[in-house]
Write a structure and sequence with these properties.
Number of strands: 3
Shape: globular
Strand order of the largest sheet: 2-1-3
Number of domains: 1
CATH superfamily: 5'-nuclease
Strand content: 5-15%
Oligomer: single chain
Number of helices: 7
CATH class: Alpha Beta
Order of helices and strands: EHHEHHHHEH
Distance between the termini: 7 Å
Largest sheet: 3 strands, parallel
Low-confidence stretches: none
Mean pLDDT: 94
Radius of gyration: 15 Å
Structural class: mainly alpha
Length: 137
């Protein structure tokens, strides 16, 4: 199964400080997914990864690192499904970002899992037909 890697995991992997413990295991899992050519990228995640970097040199370096992952095409059906997912969660008292629901919609349409450390996705999973990536699946 292909895996859509959320910004939260990319941030762990791309930070300059050394990771340890559980974070290190997550980074190793990402490396395994990359080696197995199972990683998916969408534009909104790329934008989140690159946003907030004020140092132009660091921005360009990071942009180059992630340039090997092409953006999957998002269509109207993804945006419409994201809105539907947002409405469903909101109806059940769960707030989320537009990007989170777009991630959920694309993952459902592409039959891919979401690899994240963002706990909000656990709440979304109660009401949405998403699959969260766990080591080994």
């Amino acid at each position: 199964m292909k895996v859509l890697v959320d910004t939260s995991v990319w941030s762990l992997a791309l930070r300059r400080t050394k990771t340890a413990g559980e974070d290190e295991k997550l980074v190793e899992e990402l490396k395994d997914l990359i080696r197995d050519l199972r990683v998916l990228m969408i534009g909104p995640i790329r934008q989140e990864i690159l946003s907030g970097i004020s140092d132009e040199e660091k921005y360009e370096e990071l942009k180059d690192k992630i340039s090997v992952f092409h953006d999957e095409v998002l269509g109207s059906e993804d945006f419409e499904l994201a809105a539907k997912f947002s409405n469903e969660c909101r109806k059940n008292g769960i707030q989320g970002s537009h990007t989170d629901f777009l991630i959920c919609a694309f993952a459902v349409r592409s039959e891919s899992a979401i690899f994240t450390v963002d706990k909000d996705f656990e709440m979304y999973k109660e009401y949405l037909p998403i699959t969260l990536h766990k080591k080994g699946n």
